[in-house]
Specification:
homodimer; about 280 residues; alpha/beta; 8-stranded mixed β-sheet
Chain lengths: ~280, ~280
Amino acid sequence: MSIQPNNTHYTEASIERIGVDGLFYAYRAVGRPTDVPLICLQHFTGTLDNWDPLVIDGLAQNRQVIAIDNSGIGCSDGETPDNVQDMAVTVVKIITALGINKCDLLGFSLGGFIAQTVAITNPHLFRKIILVGTAPQGTIALHSFPQLAGRAFAMEPVERYLYIFATSSEKSREKIKATLDRLMARKNDRDKEISMTAIQAQTKALTRWGTDQVTLDLSMITHPVLIIQGSNDEMMNSDSSLELYRQIPNAILTFYPDSSHGSFNQYPEIFVDQANSFLENFL
Amino acid sequence: MSIQPNNTHYTEASIERIGVDGLFYAYRAVGRPTDVPLICLQHFTGTLDNWDPLVIDGLAQNRQVIAIDNSGIGCSDGETPDNVQDMAVTVVKIITALGINKCDLLGFSLGGFIAQTVAITNPHLFRKIILVGTAPQGTIALHSFPQLAGRAFAMEPVERYLYIFATSSEKSREKIKATLDRLMARKNDRDKEISMTAIQAQTKALTRWGTDQVTLDLSMITHPVLIIQGSNDEMMNSDSSLELYRQIPNAILTFYPDSSHGSFNQYPEIFVDQANSFLENFL
């Protein structure tokens, strides 16, 4: 176990590496070491640099927060799988290699697919789970994910980010633009950008989450779960979070107004308050 | 203005009275006086003694909280109207008589109907609004409210309380039983119990909220709104809160798991954290 223990701010946390089966996986840790750290699983195309430092620092006030890069993402070795199941296996290996035997999970979008999976395959490894901007297997909106990704990649980077993470309202765009500014503020020790090969594999994995046969029985998730979604998430279809909430027995569901796939980045103070309350006070 | 300023705990707050048009209305105030106090509007049959002191004390940590009895309820003078519109007029008169020109509102159930109404008739009087276990006008579940109330009144008091406010799960019943214990702990200076006349008028008002013509355009509510509902509220139909959320432009919606009409009493710590975060940090 080699978790860097004492970073106060995510922007000051350097990239660490943990070895698993001869491969090295990248992560950043922030906050005091705690018995139950929070592991963060990232969205499509995202690396360690795509976690809003305002959110991570807020969550790290009372616990250690560890963001990890899956196989072939950022500075992690390996190939990016074209399916969520293999990504989930890697997550469990990384957590185990870090010497953690109980943690909380924050899964954002694709990271939320992985979180749902490991909650069922390795239930004892997890205490509580936060799912942001995500959806259950079989979500029809994901059938056309390649088309949505194609439209996004045709845009210049700032507009692409706003297209995915903001609504069309001026207020939402301004707040998500502020998120993007926070993501770009870091100049040193940035993670490696995602490769085209990894993007293609992730695109297939996201699409398959919608089109493949449903294999997970979400009613088996007995952990306390906090589900956060924006009012207008085109990628996941916001109503998918209602489906998660209806299938997971012990879940809180919250929708934020006038927000898209970047719901928790658009309301960082509200999200941090709610997530901390959930992690500390929800029984 | 005669608000009692310095009670730290709701159970120590005595019943005060404020005069309006020759009638006196009962209220209790707790917490340090603040520029924007929180006014609490009570549910069907509820008096000042039906606010969970754990919730009120939690909300009063950083603000003054004032619970009021509407016309003909508890120690308030007057007759209980058979419609929400007249109750709303009284609320505005009481707030104005207390010398308040800007406040937050917490409306629970019937109190939430009143909150929706005054948010539209007197928008400038309010800053933020919390709606718990409530529903928009026209909610079909309320068409059979007299039957539901009839079933409830056939039960002995503890079972009646659990029937309305808890689900059938042991966990929910235990938590709501704990709420009831907190409500009953106060021995001195209790409010007057509701009269049969007032119950009949309120039953009519609740039913009419479902059956009368829809007159309120909820899209006109421009205040930040926090909507809280249980997963299994038979009285209001939980999905009614989705309707509120979809019609009110700037609303957060949260569902709590395995809970009924007493959602915020079943999760008092989570609710207090979320309400305080909303009142202090939501823009």
